[in-house]
Amino acid sequence: MQFKSLAVIILGASLAAATAIPASQCNTGPVQCCDSTGTAKDPSISKLLGLLNINVSDVDALIGVTCTPITVIGAGGNSCAAQPVCCSNNSFKGVVAIGCTPVSL
Length: 105
Fold this sequence. Notes:
Blueprint: H1 2-18, E1 21-22, E2 31-38, H2 43-51, E3 62-70, E4 83-89, E5 96-104
Parallel strand pairs: 1-5
Antiparallel strand pairs: 2-3, 2-4, 3-5, 4-5
């Protein structure tokens, strides 16, 4: 079971890296550093969205979970060890960010 989870994570990371945009092209606010990303169909994300009463049934975009803004790209001490993304809806105080696109820093 752990191998299957690892394979999904590696595949997701590979796909995210292949479609990443430069951070300078993020025009929806600061680039976000999210602990994890996925779709609304992912069980853990779906459960979190349900608990927060956020309906994204019609959204097929990437969703970031536990996100914090990266305000200065390239400055010491402000890096992202998880998934940097540019999101169109950051109105959930960092718990989730909707409409995300992976970013290359």
